[in-house]
Design brief:
The structure is a homodimer. By secondary structure, chain A is an alpha/beta fold. Chain A has 13 helices and 13 strands. Helices cover 43% and strands 14% of the residues of chain A. The radius of gyration of chain A is 21 Å and the shape is globular. The interface between A and B is large, with 77 and 76 residues.
Chain lengths: 397, 397
């Protein structure tokens, strides 16, 4: 007998599993090159050669008991210092190793900080559409995730709706910028408005409200768009970062939390997040990978590859009559379905061997998400299928 | 403001931190070679050269997008198959990849299976003395850890006391064999008795009771002692394993869960534990390390190094008049303190630059734990200090 809290998750997982099986079934019939799978956010751009070299260098030059040994739950001090220095250089901040906790990816970091902060019944706000795992993360600590409804004209956070949703029980707000699933980058103007609302609400309710910035896509921003660093706009900000996309190593599970010294109750929050890392069973971020990424902080993934995909897929879909906002970051397109029920669209797309994720998986039905972190050829080859689909659905202009 | 559940953990952590600082203070005054730190279970035997070579081989021969990419939350299928095959060969079991979930160390595995099973208020039994983190792990899911009092003559599980502690609310039992902190290996006879009690209680209460076997020290067993493989004695058994000690890579966070097909509700439990791995933020066990350990399943740490330490430290302490059981496994000695208040002993030991962990940290006051995973020289050099301590406390025979 599994835990009651898990029952819904297990049932829901079967649906995702079914889609995965469908992809395999289609690939077996038509050949994998004729199935256009836009469902997974698994980067197709390989990790930079410098990362593999850094791993080999660490093995060849660092003492083995250190490479593979325990360290403080927050991570190696020199790795944390290297991360802080790199942030200071890029964002003109003033962090030290005392502000950095190395984590098991961004997902591990988010869980650690939520465990550190959330009491049962506390409300955590986030802006739809959002990565639905947030709901599970908050529920792990018996918090309640509260959705702020989207502004579907721009997919910038809906600040008016946000203000109304904050209550005396609001403990934290999660922001994901650049955004999954829309690819939108929240503007400085939006961030300033959010910060102003939160400052006012902190005063009104007489307690701290934390802004948790989930930033796995920070480095994936196109056309030089500005991605604000949130600790500079709001004091009680915690940043959760992952190297998963910037260095294409999602499987290795490495990221960090930034907990600024200026925060209220900084000392206890830093201690609590470190201990949460331990008691949740992470113990520490993988040691070899800590040492390796510290040597690759200036490395970048091949963003131009994603940019080419973006231009081709966005341009073509618009031409065929699909409705979507041009993404400025991440590697997702969020496309409006021509009928209210996205499931009808998804079934129609499947008949053309196109696999996409429903918007309801991001609390935003009537849309589908396309992950364009696939090969350029996959996109090129998928275009006739998209065109046929558009014609079939009467979408062409 | 941190979460209420974290407050006790943060306060308690300061005490551990204080001991760590004390070690650094003593090392600064007397030189690190004159401080005998037996407080940490961080293996001093380096990882086998074959592991470092396996990492380099993986990097040189496997496609980069695979090495560092996402895979199923349960882990790479071929890694899980290799683990199952290795278990089958060694323990005459019948596992397949469908029984293995790769985890972020044993701590990650325990958290995933507890999240999968535990409802608020469920009781989880364990045998004192035990690794105190179990309390935090169970509390993460609002379960209640119930201690079974120790049999201090043998430190085998106290089966009579165990039987009385099982109630209608008992959902699981955690066993740690070979044991931290005693070094005792639970005998086949003990295991059979525990299994018989649990079978009877399952019938009596009409619901499943799961045996969770935490086995990071399985390979650290001396003198050919037999360490029973628990799935062979009790059907509803889940094994949590870690490569931390067998391959000396605790920092890399890699282990696995074994969930046998014969278990009641196997399918849901396997699914729930995989999903728990995802929603707790582990997502998956570190990918490069999965591929590397799969190539090292027949590798062993240098157990003879630990054995030499064991013989020297145990033999000498007995000679000086200390009371303890000769450990058959792991790398710990659990020593009875000559006065009821172990804190008095710990302070006296500190004056001789000896650092040890109080038994109360394992729910067994009146004892201290010595981790002998240190260099042979540290042990040799510490002996005069132990002798002086024994003389000072009037313990010599």
């Amino acid at each position: 007998m599994i835990a009651k809290k898990m029952e819904g998750l297990v049932n829901n997982n079967s649906a995702i599993r079914a889609m995965f099986e469908e992809g395999k079934r289609l690939a077996a019939i038509y050949g994998p090159e004729n199935v256009y799978d836009f469902s997974l956010g698994n980067p197709n751009v390989p990790a930079p050669e410098a990362l593999n070299q850094a791993i080999i260098d660490v093995i060849n030059t660092v003492e083995t008991t250190k490479i593979h040994g325990y360290m403080s739950n927050a991570g190696f001090e020199e790795v944390r210092k290297a991360v802080a220095d790199s942030l200071n250089k890029r964002f003109d901040t003033n962090f030290t190793e005392a502000n950095i906790i190395m984590t098991v990816g961004a997902a591990g970091g988010l869980n650690s900080i939520l465990k550190a902060l959330i009491n049962p019944g506390d409300e955590v706000l986030t802006f739809a559409p959002y990565f639905l795992e947030y709901r599970a993360y908050v529920s792990n600590y018996d918090g309640v995730l509260v959705e702020v409804e989207p502004d579907t004209t721009t997919f910038q956070p809906n600040v008016e709706a946000f203000e109304k949703k904050i209550t005396a029980n609001t403990k934290a707000v999660i922001i994901n910028n650049p955004n999954n699933p829309t690819g939108v980058v929240y503007s400085e103007e939006t961030i300033k408005k959010i910060a102003a609302v939160m400052e006012a609400k902190q005063k009104e309710y007489g307690h701290d409200i934390y802004l948790i910035s989930d930033e796995p896509y920070r480095e994936l921003a196109y056309d030089g768009v500005f991605v604000p660093y949130l600790t500079k706009y709001y004091t009680n900000t915690i940043v959760g970062y992952s190297f998963s996309k910037s260095l294409s190593l999602p499987g290795d599970r490495i990221g960090y939390l930034v907990i600024p010294s200026e925060m209220e109750d900084y000392k206890n929050i830093f201690a609590a997040a470190s201990i949460a890392t331990r008691v949740l069973g992470f113990v520490n971020a993988p040691s070899l990978m800590q040492l390796a990424v510290a040597r690759c902080l200036e490395e970048k993934t091949d963003i131009e590859a994603y940019n080419r995909n973006r231009e081709l897929l966005y341009g073509s879909l618009k031409e065929y009559g699909f409705e979507c906002i041009k993404p400025e970051g991440a590697f997702y397109l969020f496309v409006k379905t021509p009928m209210a029920d996205e499931k009808v669209f998804i079934e129609a797309a499947k008949k053309h061997n196109i696999l996409v994720v429903p918007g309801s998986s991001f609390a935003c039905p009537g849309y589908v998400r396309l992950a364009y972190c696939v090969s350029y050829d996959t996109i090129k080859n998928s275009l006739p299928a998209f065109k046929e689909l558009a014609e079939e659905l009467g979408m062409c202009k």
